[in-house]
UniProtKB/TrEMBL annotation:
This is Thioredoxin domain-containing protein. Thiol-specific peroxidase that catalyzes the reduction of hydrogen peroxide and organic hydroperoxides to water and alcohols, respectively. Plays a role in cell protection against oxidative stress by detoxifying peroxides. PROSITE patterns: THIOREDOXIN_2 (PS51352). GO terms for biological process: cell redox homeostasis; cellular response to oxidative stress; hydrogen peroxide catabolic process. Gene3D superfamilies: Glutaredoxin.
C-alpha cells in the first residue's frame, strides 16, 4: 500500500508540473517533403522580385523560351568568378536560342543589384531575380541548408531551360549548371 500511495503522489506531481509523458507534437506529423522539379513539370507561379517589381515567375516565360539559373549566393566566390560571368559572356549566343536569361538567388533585390554592378552583369545580358524569402526555391525543391557557412537556407546551383508557358525542358545541377553546358543543351 505504501508503494501505491507513492506512485499516486508521483503521478499527481508529474501531471501538476506538466511532465506528462507524450510524443512531441512534431514527431506525430509526417514530414513535409517537396519533390524536386523535373523535366516536363511547369514552374510554380511564385512571386519574386524583378527590377524592383513583384512578378509571378511564370510571367517571365509567358511568351518566350528562356534559361533560368540559380546561384547559392551573391558575392560568393564561384558565383562571382565563374557562374554569373559565364552567362554574361555567353548571353548573346544563349539569347539567340532562348531570349530570356534570368539569375535566381535567395538574396534581397538590393544585394543582387549591387552584385550585378560589381561583376559587370548588365540587365541586357542577365535579369536578376530576387527570391528573398526562398519561396520559389522551396517550391521547386532546390533549397539547401548552408547554415554551416552562416548563409542560412539558400538555393542549390542549377540551370533550367524553360519553354514558353513555363514548362521545364532541361535541368542541370552543380557542374552541369554553367553556361557552357546550357549552351550545349539549347
Amino acid at each position: 500500500m505504501k508503494s501505491f500511495g507513492a506512485l499516486v503522489l508521483l503521478s499527481i506531481c508529474t501531471i501538476c508540473n506538466g511532465f506528462v509523458a507524450r510524443a512531441p507534437v512534431g514527431r506525430l506529423r509526417a514530414p513535409h517533403r517537396i519533390t524536386m522539379i523535373a523535366v516536363g513539370d511547369t514552374l510554380p507561379n511564385v512571386s519574386v522580385k524583378v527590377a524592383g517589381e513583384v512578378r509571378g515567375i511564370l510571367d517571365l516565360f509567358a511568351n518566350q523560351r528562356g534559361v533560368l539559373f540559380a546561384v547559392p549566393g551573391a558575392f560568393t566566390p564561384t558565383c562571382s568568378e565563374k557562374h554569373l560571368p559565364g552567362f554574361v559572356e555567353q548571353s548573346a549566343a544563349i539569347k539567340g536560342k532562348a531570349p530570356f536569361v534570368g539569375c535566381v538567388a535567395v538574396n534581397d533585390p538590393f544585394v543582387l543589384d549591387a552584385w550585378a554592378k560589381t561583376v559587370n552583369a548588365p540587365t541586357s545580358a542577365v535579369t536578376m531575380i530576387s527570391d528573398g524569402n526562398g519561396e520559389f526555391t522551396k517550391a521547386i525543391g532546390m533549397e539547401m541548408d548552408a547554415s554551416g557557412n552562416f548563409l542560412g537556407t539558400r538555393s542549390k546551383r542549377y540551370a533550367m531551360i524553360i519553354a514558353p508557358g513555363g514548362r521545364v525542358e532541361w535541368i542541370g545541377e552543380g557542374d552541369d549548371a554553367f553556361a557552357n553546358v546550357v549552351m550545349s543543351k539549347l
